[in-house]
Amino acid sequence: MKSFFTITILVGLLITFLFAISAFLGRDLFLTLQKEFEQGIINNGQSKKPLLVRFAVLSDTHSDSENTKKALEQAKSLGVEYIVHTGDWTTVGTVRELNEQKRIFDQEGIKYYGIMGDHDRWQSGDKNFEQVLGKSFESYDRDGIHNVLLDASDIENGLYKEELDWLEADLRIAGDKPILIFMHLPIYHPTSDRTISNKAGSDAERDSASERFLSLLKGKNILGIFSGDHHLSSNYTEPTTGVRIFISGAVTRERNLQKPRFSLVEVYKAHTISVTDQIIK
Questions:
Q1: CA nearest 136: which of 110, 109, 118, 156?
Q2: DSSP line for the chain
Q3: Which of 107, 185, 230, 251 is the most exposed, fewest CB within 10 Å of its CB?
Q4: How far apart are the two ends of the chain, measured CA to CA in Å?
Q5: What does each C-alpha distance from 170 to 166, 173, 177 come to in angstroms?
């Protein structure tokens, strides 16, 4: 009987500890792990659908040069055509850190696109990033898909008016093309405050900007939104638009509740997509 009570107490302490981790990180750990398990089942195996394009999404490399190289080499071995980095390339956003990440990507000789994370703006806002890696938001067409790269890195100000005005015009021009959106912090999460609106706390102006963003998606053919920041992969549906959001796990080995990983994305000719975690070897 004494052993039973001891085991019960230990189990209770373990559960309390896991909930404390979830609270500290601003996410529901159990829900995320469940989603990850479900995603592994849903996306297991090779699809026989006609493939349009295969690419990789990397996130949160945080100046981990060794794992960045490994992830890029592994992505190339999987036959990706290009790579999208969804932010937090660095630890504090210095020019030196950004240049080192750029050097590694350039060295691999594969086309890549990228956006800024909140860590990348720590030293200078968007100045260092734009100096080294280019525009903080832009769009491009590739393989018949309209790709939108947004700046969702400013946790104090959220999505700003100039960017949303540009997005409204950009989506109007895109018309009925299938669309993929990439942004560092997600626009929504079912259980976590780690979103572009709420990472720095509740704010009416940031909430209003996020609502405007979501309103711009309605009626558009959005195949998915890809984000990072959480260091824990998951996927879920934004309830007002029905758009699927994919959170890519972190490449870095630091502050990572999972084994380091990236996302392999396959878009099919029927404009459906498959997203699978690729653990870095």
A1: 118
A2: -HHHHHHHHHHHHHHHHHHHHHHHHTS-HHHHHHHHHHHHHHT-S---SPEEEEEEEE---TT-HHHHHHHHHHHHHTT-S-EEE-S--SSS--HHHHHHHHHHHHHHT--EEE---GGGGTTTTTHHHHHHH--SSEEEEETTEEEEE-----TTT-S-HHHHHHHHHHHHHHTTS-EEEE-SS-S--SS---STTTTT---HHHHHHHHHHHHHHTTS-EEEEEE-SSSS-EEEE-TTT--EEEEPPPSSSTT-SS--EEEEEEEETTS-EEEEEEE--
A3: 107
A4: 45
A5: 6, 5, 12
